[in-house]
Batch of 3 targets.
Target 1
Amino acid sequence: MSRAQKPRGGSTPARAGAVVLADTLAAQPPRPESYGAKAANLGALLAAGYRVPPFAVVTASACAQILAPVAEDIGRALAGLHHTDSDALRAVSAQIRALIRGLELPGSVAAELAAAVDALASVKPAAATGEHSRSSSASDFAPAGDTIRLAVRSSVSGEDSATDSFAGQLDTILNVAPGDVPAALLDVLASAFSERSLFYRAHRGLDNAAVDCAVLVQVLVDSAVSGVVFSCNPQSGDPAESVVSAAPGLGEGVVAGLVECDTYFVDNASGRIVSRVVADKRGRVEPDAATGTAVVPIEGGDSTPALTDERIGELVGIAAALAGRLGGPQDVEWTYDRSGVLHLLQARPVTATGARETIFDNVNVAESYPGLSSPLTFSILRAAYEQVFRACHRDFGATKQIVARNNASLYPYLVGTAHGRIYYNISNWYRLFLQIPGMEFAIEGWEAALNIENRYRRPAVPKRGLAKLRTHVLRARVIAVIAVGWLRLPRRLRRFFDELAVFTADLDRRLAPETPSRERDPEALVQWLERLLGQLVPVYSVQIFNDFLAQQLFHVVGLLLERRGLDEQQALTLRNELFCGEEGVDSVDPVRSALALTATIRADEGLRALFEGPLDTEAVWKTLAQKEFAGFRDDCLRHIALFGDRTVAELKLETDPLGEHPERLVPMLRNYLRGGQNIDDMAEREKRIRREAEQTARTLFRGSRAERLAFRFALARAREHVKQRENMRLGRSRSFGLIKRVVRECGRHMHEAGLLAEPRDIFWLTWEEIVALVRGTAVDTDVVRTVATRKADHERWRDTPVPTRIVTTGIAAATIADPALEAPATVDDSATVLHGIGCAPGRVEAPALVLGTPDPDVAIDGQILVAATTDPGWVFLMVAAGGLVSEKGSVLSHTAIIGRELGIPTVVGVPGVTQRIRTGDRVALDGRAGTATIVHEDTP
């Protein structure tokens, strides 16, 4: 640690005017109103004897002087701005930032800043005086022979406080040359009016027009390893545990989440490291001449710990000392330079300590509910999940006491919604697992199957005594419960489809014209849907049990392959190929039926002329009513009756089934007619891949009879459960088709009663609101106003990008940031090879077709479909495509399974692919390697 640093040669520091050097600031009482919170905190660290890289601060009054020429323009731009209006925020932010970037620094400020930068460029820090001291030289801050580089960052009043951390809201500019500091200063000031900063301050009740911003100019350390240390656990607020995060290179990699980090959990009382998560580090953030900083790949990865135990102890000790000195838990950023010297970069109170953290994630649910979903869809889904997982918890061995304890606080809250999108409440899903003693072993396979970011720290297995015995007893109990459930599984699967048939027949009778109207009046319909939610939906819990077995066995197959010497990628590829060509997958039946219709068209001259002719979709469907086409039209209606519930976004209640728009079958058949697809040829190709993979596996397990038998058993059972997973999904589609019919009938009744302007407006109400309106318990009966408000909200959210994961503390609705203002995922515009998870083998080169919400009339003829996410209804589009690549998905997602079954090269989990690839680009897709390569970019 060093005391205040002095310019080399004994020159006099700048006076306390527009720009103040570190030693002057450290000698004064803290003045955050003048220097901002970050600079004041750094001054306090210097005064306490800690080593801090040399810095100067452009005071808040000097920054106000810089902004004075445009202050009135900024005030006018901010007047009347509402922080929930994303478009207005974007426009106002761009206007203000352009004004600030066009300024020139006042002469006096520019002169003082230049003198301060010169002083920093010549600094040689004095020796530190604390126990971690070491004499320093300029090499701590720049590699030998290099010009010193600087970091320019904000220091705002209220920033880095216990209540308002402003974390990531204002820009930090790294690797700035001394001559570029004035421009970087203006960029930082402009960032105080970025979209996310304007939203953050307004959302926290702070005045956007009163931003007291100072700016720090600090020497950039030539960092070897950097990170953050918390003197308490920042998630739980537990003061007994410190947490250290570390990664090679600059600290930006850790705080911005750009690289893989190690994490260490330390017991404060004993100093013992109780848990460590050492990542396979693939990149490090380093200075870059062109972009300031860049993520530099680490060749071959690095799985060695970023920190020694001695350094972990040193960091935890400093954080504890600062917590005691500053009166509360501290969040300390730090770096070790290449000489092994520790520098503290900032310290601030840990924000929201002890507040309950809730994690919402849409990584898997977005496959079934892509984009915006109506309030009615969300409310029915929430009620369905409550019923299913209450029953499911019992299936996995939860006691009556556990189930009773969770009836009110857990089961109803397994899904959440943010800005019209549906998310899993991942925090509660972990609670589901962990409330069944002995079940924690299954979390790893569940996370891997759903491609969910790991959040769970599995405790070490006790090595001796009663604790070890108890662990084995609990595991045995869980295994016994699962074994019994597995034996009951076939009967339970049959029971679901039997119950579904009963409900289907009853609704057909109830909605028939000859049935008395009292059996389909609003109260009767509400009772019917309540019965479905209470009787049929809990039976669907068998799907969750089957899914669990599929996920775990699929994971076991991969682990067994790795044990025979394959690396992770090789095991993934072979496992995918072993699951190709599975027979009896009911989800493929709708495609087989549609291809059979296409074969009929191809064989009939009149039908072929009609479908290849110039008539539009509706005209073709009307023409099929002619007598000469009656037989084919009947075949089409049979297809619609059997498979009309399978559509794109089929689980959204607002999505119309095919029966309401039968003409939409026409473009699908036209796509197949153009492409010449043959389901038998596709299936034979997949079977060939499967046979070759089985031969590879036999060779791999030769010589180990026990492992060979275990592998055969796991593979056979995994194949069966994956197949049943898809079959149950088709049953789920048909169940939702029943709900669609009921709510549409309710909408018609409410429209006739004058409550709704249109029958379809019922989708803007929740299920609970519909029941309240029917039974007289609604506290707000102005339904038209409610519908108008929600329509406006959805229109505003429609084109708003949203994060995959949202982490909230305390009241969830109060701490969910506006998704429009989340920092967008970084997409490398120069990258031509994009990497994801290969799910269905095969290689194809074709033009790309980027799809958001698929148009039923879209023409598909062998292109590679590029999407943010897909759902089961995409199966009809996939068949006509050459391949598919999506941003979301996992190896057990519906897209992956159908891709393997139909022999369509498929790659999922490719970040930013819809931003990097444009429609018309020529792309080579490799479903085995998991890559999408841009061969030629189409010129707009």
Target 2
Amino acid sequence: MTAPGRRSSTFTRLLRHGFTDPSAAERLLDAVELAPVRDDPVLLEALGATADPDLALHGLVRLLEAQPDPTARRELLDTLIAAKPLRDRLLGVLGASEALADHLARHAGDWRALVTYEPRDLHRGVEDFERGLAEADDPVSLRVAYRRCLLSIAARDVCGTIDVAETAAELADLATATLRAALALAEAAAPEDAALCRLAVIAMGKCGGHELNYVSDVDVIFVGEAVEGADEPKALRAATALASHLMRICSETTVEGSIWPVDANLRPEGRNGPLVRTLSSHLAYYQRWAKTWEFQALLKARPVAGDPGLGAEYVAALQPLVWQAADRENFVPDVQKMRRRVVENIPAAEVDRQLKLGPGGLRDVEFAVQLLQLVHGRADTSLHSGTTLDALEALAAGGYVGRADAAQLDEAYRFLRSMEHRIQLHRLRRTHLVPEDEADLRRLGRSLGLRTDPVAGLLRAWKRHASVVRRLHEKLFYRPLLDAVAQLAPGEARLSAEAARERMVALGYADPAAALRHLEALASGVTRKAAIQRTLLPVLLGWFADSADPDAGLLNFRKVSDALGKTPWYLRLLRDEGAAAENLARVLSAGRLAPDLLMRAPEAVALLGDGNAGGLAPRGRAQLEQETLAAVRRADGAVQAVAAVRGVRRRELFRTAAADIVGSYGTEAQPVEADQGALVDRVGAAVSDLTAATLAGTLRAVVREGWGDTLPTRFAIIGMGRFGGHELGYGSDADVLFVHEPRDGADEREAAGAANKVVSEMRRLLQVPSADPPLLIDADLRPEGKSGPLVRTLKSYEAYYRRWSLVWERHALLRAEFVAGDEDLGRRFIELVDPLRYPAGGLDDDAVREIRRLKARMESERLPRGADPKLHAKLGPGGLSDVEWTVQLMQLRHGHEEAGLRTTRTRAALAAACEAGLISAENATTLDEAWVLATRVRNAVMLVRGRAGDTFPTDPRELAAVGRYLGHGPGHAGDMLDEYRRTARRARAVVDELFYA
């Protein structure tokens, strides 16, 4: 008897052998059924070798209890102790599969299926499984026989007699035998139907590919023909009845459960199409209507049951079409959609546990292999395999995939499939999720041979293999392209020139010959620079292909690399800082503006290294002014000073554009910015601050050149329009007013002349042709417009506004804000105009009518001829003008009473109007969304085309690039235009209600 407080030696031995609940195990070992072998060390050793010793012992006791009599129980125990093959197989299954333990408890004699240990038993085929199912004469007995066969596969799997690929192949062979048996049952139940038709069952998906899971839908397609002399419609009805019965036999739940669902949704037209078609009908569909993904599915088509001749005819007729899919007109956009579908189909709540769909999961490998088969299989029949690992081996042998990459991918795929198998085997449930429960993870790890800290070991191995898949997924496509243009070791296979061209076309490159020349220029040679490029380019090419214009991305990368290739930090930055390379790829392939800015000073690449947390974060106005004024102090003369200021502006425009692109496209490290309004506000504020700093630096340079430290008149610049509203876009002019005030004792004429000369010189220097983009200064919003003087004194402004100001001028002053020059003068100007733009008592009816008249006139006269009004982001219905005039009318009417309305910013004024109850929350949201979208459209057009525009581009590539910036994937330009029209239409309805009512 064990002393109180001390554990028994059995308890300790059980712990040492891997039991997690030794107390329960002791009780089970004391069961009368185990009495003859309780003290046999062989049993305990064998239980300790299983994935879950507790589960194995529990299952063994249940199996012994289920034996019909003591003789049968004694036979089982004797065989268990004496025959190691049975012991390993039986206990291995009981420790890995609760579901198969349940089966053995219900069918107590089926353990004998594990006794056989002959060479032919090591690798069973379809004929072996057909013999195992031969006695089944109804759906219930078929399920029992199926489980018995499954038991033998699982036993050899968990014991390591067969590897994961052989296991998957045997599961597919068992499915083949099961489909044949189910069809035989269906034909026996309806011999009159069987006599009318020829029916072939074509396996698809993993069954067709000879790589089935333990629990998976079995994808099939049915093809039928009338027997000679039979009526075809009647024969097809008979074939459909047989096919439907076959599906029910396999899928329906009985007292023995179900086998697996038979899924025929891969057939032409999916679930909306007829279940059974003739061969000619199949052929007609695939020739006329099928999409690229349907040919991808046919890669795995394999006749498995029914009429073998008809099945062979089906494959012979359709397989040639599979290898012509890459020649189809829409192949490239279809491929791009399929590549994204891999990511888009991941349920957000499961992404971190997904073996199949998650990043670095099984689908990544399978999709990459299948896509490469489609691209290169038309010219190379060695790639015509439906099995993923066989196809991967063939791709490596042909040079389409690097051998080292293929070996790593093969290892990772086998590990992930092994995890998937063992997870499903436990309860025979269809799942691809890694469990969260500690006990489940422990069993899973031990089942894969991880005995020392199985949970931590499993998670480490899983993450490592998933990381390999994730890293190689894109590299698979692009690495061989470099090998095709680089020097390889003797005997190493490479892509042919034609195969490389085909792959570039498939990945979306419009000019594959030029793209390959760029690759050759970048990656050829034995220098360290070329070696680093060969490391970077496979990933960069994938990011370029993810854009609307891969060719431009690659060309721009070559230009930047040519400019910076000799600098020691450039390639090191891209190699060592993950964000830098992806940010650069996004920026170079998103349009013309950012690359143009970068090419003028390629060293700005360094800004991309820290992501938005550092290098791409916008700089404030004070910091920018400090830099521009310091540059002016260092310069010799105004020309050199303003050139330095414009250089700062160009660099900061690049910083802003790059941050905008990265936020809009998203990267691996930084998801797409969810708040589109925040993106718009950041761009508007950054460009406006930059413009103000540019004007401040230019003003200082001009004054210093002509007058030294002090101008004879105080001088201030007032921002107007979008500039004053902190809403400038990349292509916006700087709308301003110039105001001056002669200093005490200064001659007024001399002061006015100086002020005018300052303005003239500022405008000239900011537009001098150079490598830096010009800044156009627009002063047309001044009193009397273009007819009035360019610069006025503060008193002149006061006199004019008191006597002559028009409604449109008061309207324009809503955006007035001091931006540069004499701060005190600027403050006094703002104090002067506040009563005009926020009049006490609001606007009278005549003024409101005048504003409405001006708006209507602008809509009719300023819209460009031939432009579609519904797609004009500035002047069209629901565009920027509509929203801004509606908000500004509320400011003019209520700004005197509502302090929140006294702002130059549209979105802030709209929010204040909503808070004041002047507009409903719903209408405010509608206007805000329309304004943000229209602003983003204008920004996108400038980024893509490199010049300002208010309408969507007509060029398909440019339109697609605008779509990508706005969050619409390839092929969804129409959806983007529909979304814009819909948003603008809703906004116009609000404008009609609030502005024109």
Target 3
Amino acid sequence: MKKSFFKIGFWISIVILGISCASKKVAVIPPPVIVPEVKMVADNFDPDFDSAIEKKWVDSIYNTLTFDERIGQLFMVSAYSNKDSVHVKAIDKLIQENKVGGLIFFQGGPVRQAKLTNRFQSESKVPLLIGIDAEWGLSMRLDSTYRYPFNMTLGAIQNKKLIETVGIQMGEQNKRIGVHFNFAPVLDINTNPKNPIIGFRSFGENKVNVTESALALMKGYQSQGLLATGKHFPGHGDTEIDSHAALPTITFSKERLDSVEMYPYKKLFVEGLASVMVAHLNVPSLEPKPNIPSSVSHNIITDVLKNQLGFKGLIFTDALNMKAAKNFREPGEIDLEAFQAGNDILLCAENVPVAAEKICMAYQDSLITEERLAYSVKKILKYKYKVGLNAFNPITIPGIYTDINPIKNDALQYELYENAITVLKNKNDILPLANLENEKIAYVKLGDDVNSAFVSTLKKYTEVTEINDDDLECLKDSLQQFTKVIVGFHKSDKAWKSHAMSEKDLTWLTEIAKNNITILDAFTKPYALIPVTAFDEIEGVVVSYQNSDIAQIVSAELLFGAIDARGKLPVSINEQFKANDGLTTTKLNRLGFTVPENVGMNSTTLAKIENLANYAITKKMTPGIEILVARKGKVVYQKSFGYYTYDNKTKVSNANIYDIASLTKIIATLPNVMQQYDQQKITMETPLKVLLPMFNNSDKQDIPFKDLLSHYARLQAWIPFYKATLDSAKMPLPKYYSKVANAQFSKQVADSLFMRNDYHDSIMKMIVDSKLLPKKEYKYSDFTFIILKDYLESVTGKKLDVLVQEQFYKSIGMNNTTFNPLQRFAKDSIPPTEIDTYFRHQQIQGYVHDMEAAMEGGVGGHAGIFSNAMDVAKMMQMYLQKGNYGGHQYFSEKTFTDFNTCYFCAEGNRRGVGFDKPQLPGTSGPTCGCVSLTSFGHTGFTGTMAWADPDDELVYVFLSNRTFPDSTVNTLSKENIREDIQKVIYEAITK
């Protein structure tokens, strides 16, 4: 009885629907009396509804749809936000007349797409499913959006939680612009290096790695309500034909396909994969009829995918306008066959009206049943419910760009490349590059794409010389003087650009490797290295996968040991390197680079620094500024503001070097003194007469070392030594100065001004004879470090400028730090410090501003160093790491702790031994008052500051030329600009 009732109800429903395929008249909605009959049909459909509410909504919507509207739900048509009004109106028509169920967006922009989505949704009776093919993020299709690494890059990452985070971020961004389906992840196992269409889009050649990576990405998507689509079923990884152009053939057996190609699908089905996209492939082992695309194969889709594998999610065809499909059947016919084969959604139909007509006629001819139609349409409606289309709200347009491009995108990108970049060869532990004092490094570029981020980052670690030459023999000659050669192979990061090595690249690489100790760093997909025959000659091989700026920065970090190597090769490179190869390397505790969010800081808060810097420049407190912030071993902020002078002609940059004034004390003199202490050549109680015998029998002979360096020795602040060498008109006396250098006058003070060599003795005698202050209290004095310079030179037998280079700068990689910079650098790379009208009577540029240091030929224990923020930060990081940097232990942790102790705080003296320390309660001082008591640093007269905080693992460097054009007014200090910036830095700390 029930079966009879069902059959009668079924045929009555068809009649009432009033199907007329030829005329395409609007069908009549079934009257309520028939609803139970339709419902009975639906009862035979098992949609696995998650709730009764979901089922009720699906049934209610389905029962309101006309026959044409039901057919329309099957189509997801191509839409573009970068096309003209003709295209937009064509989509309008498909929605309004053909009742299509969804759109797949291609090229355009996020805001334009969101606006069009709102328009199209407003025209549709049932809200549209919106899809996009965005495998590496929205930037695969849309401008002004973020680009994540390709899947092959992600496949090198062993920490799959990071890939899940990629999926989460992609999910957030897709949802923000109204997208419900992303046609990803790619589940193809790329076992064929010649695959023209998958390749880098695959996570690799190992089925387990592909599965784990894709699963992580899927979980990320779907946790945000963005539904994932596994593709390209049953497996597009071993083809040499692009299915956009023709029909590829997969020759594997059923057993091989089941155990390898289908392995990821089976695993992801268990984990809740929402949908599958079926490829256009000829698979004879699964479809015996010749040259039948898998996308229209009932055997593959219904028998294998649905029945054998038990998949119950949505099934999409691959785009039906691809030649592998369109060459098989005409538009309309291909759509009908795809639906009959078991697909739910027909993607990118070429002619929707014709396709709908074909499906309608097939229905009339009983080739398609109501049950079959209901099965797919209700499944589509079910997923519309799942993505919230039961309560659709238009997309909010304002704020889209900001919302989909947050700083956390870059934060994750750094982590991804830190975990992906792979070291494949490391002969004799060439990596990381250590012992920089023994190295002379060259860089040679191969490939045809940009390399500026890589080269500039390399140069932040040590001196690296770019060698460019169009002639190979000349290049080889130039490289003979270098101990190591880094070859960077840079190819376009655009997806479909050729990544192949040219014959010239291969020849040059072979010749360079044959004659030099060589490190090859490939910023391209691994397959590009297949033609390389010189691997035996290459000492270090690194695969960085892509040529993005962040990839280049992180790769340079790895070469110098700021990070360790963690990546594993996702695909094989001939017999040389196999999938899952990847060496670990040692981390050398050098500064690296990232964004603030990766070290528990807030970029938006740090951006306030710019306002303070520009305020200082606008108010003419200083013409130029460079500021650096590092935390937890990573530089997170480095920026320059202003110009060399107030004429605003030459902008300052991070490459400029500044006169850092009294920072010289802790950047040059103090670390060498600490080594003497570490070697137990001095103690905290060593008296001054032992340090320098010239103080024997003076009133200063018994000053302890600790008191001397704590500015607690009753010494005068300073003596204007230069005044004794000037005439009554304040001009240099010929007795002391010469306009040309000679054997007697070799200490250059300024342009065309040289001091007599023996005047240093007079300076030291004045210090020895100077009166002690009557009261023992904190009094800052330059004498301390003038004295220490003499001490160091006497016990080491080396001049301070030579000593500090040998002991610290060369091995640390402080290649922009020096006394007398004009001996190494062009004058136009150095902002001027003053227009001197009282001593040297010229613009001071490239010569030390401090008068006594100038009289010493530019080398003072208290002043004279020129540097940039990056180099200063290296020394501060070395202190922060208690004497360790770049694999060197320069002095013991105990030595650092002894020097970073305030021994006289109880007496009201905040100073450490050589270091400045935070101000004591109720007093003024050098910091914002928000630093820890363990913090330390120094300030300089030219408007400089370097401060480190062990508690917060923080380094702050501020450089300026505030003394230009006149040093007498120090508004920068009076307005606490350096301190206010430091306060912002601490406010930016989030954890």
